[in-house]
Predict the 3D structure of the following.
Amino acid sequence: MRPGPHNSLTDVPGLLVGHATRREPGWLTGTTVVVAPPEGAVGGVDVRGGAPGTRETDLLDPRNLVDRVNAVVLTGGSAFGLAAADGVMQALYAAGLGWPVGEPGQVVPIVPAAVVFDLGRGGDFGHVPTAADGRAAFDAAGDGPVEQGCVGAGTGARAGGFKGGIGSASVVLEDGTTVAALVVVNAFGDACDVRTGELLARRHGLAGEFDQVGVPSPPEAEAARERALAAYAEDPVRPGMATVIGVIATDAPLTKAQCQKVSGLGHDGLARAIAPVHTLLDGDTLFTLAVGDGSPLDLPALHAVMVAASECVTRAVGHAMLSAESVDIGEVQLRSYRDAFPSAFDPAAPPT
């Protein structure tokens, strides 16, 4: 198997991704929007964390009516940040896109959303994404390589004692089906082995994907543990203050129920890349979008898509950690994985 051309979510035809990033003084937050094709995408969701912040997830229950999603919003700002979805709804409505409820033009855009907690990480607790940020992310959406790291909803993210961010990955299966994932890593758990510093996703890459990443030296691993403990002491993670959210996508033809099951297997991918995961302190939520049409998949093909989704989530977490940049949060410096473990990287190897 091989990744798609961008090794990111936009390798799934018709999907667009855009970020709105707020890094000005007092801010460290943002919004990311995944825009479906004009006809929408079949959607599903699986919420596993004990402290989720979401919008329109009940709508995606396979027992319920609406089966097409126009966009998914991933955003900082905790529950306040859900307002970013309003800007995306207004943009879609202006374009005449949404669930038809009457005469032509009378539509209601379907925009599920999920949030991460980053309140106060830029200095001002009240600085949160708004509808204007959602609109800005929508307007910036494109089909090129997805910018990763400390952008959009990953701007203020942290992962254990390290800086978190956004990551993405894709794979093209033997039959030509594309599966991809985009995740915002803002976890209570760690994305590396706390004993050795090894990136947990490292062993799950495609051929050559993480070849430049090794195991850090023991002194660096010990120093990183001490810094992580200090970071928690100065800025402890409390209930509701962590979460991994994301979108899985494929060009396979899936039903709502199958999309929900794909999201569930995506959480297995989180469990390989972050430990612990799905805690009472996290709101881990994964959406799945399917843009394909045609005959339903047979069981082996469906199984392959579900397994690939799980693996893409794991790899996307790895890319999020490798793309993140160190940042000062008050008196605490959250180091990126790269800055914490320089000995783990081979300067002669190609970048991830």
Remarks:
- The CA atoms of residues 172 and 178 lie 5 Å apart.
- The chain is about 25% helix and 20% strand.
- The longest strand covers residues 178-186.
- The helical segments are 84-94, 131-139, 218-234, 256-273, 299-323, 337-340.
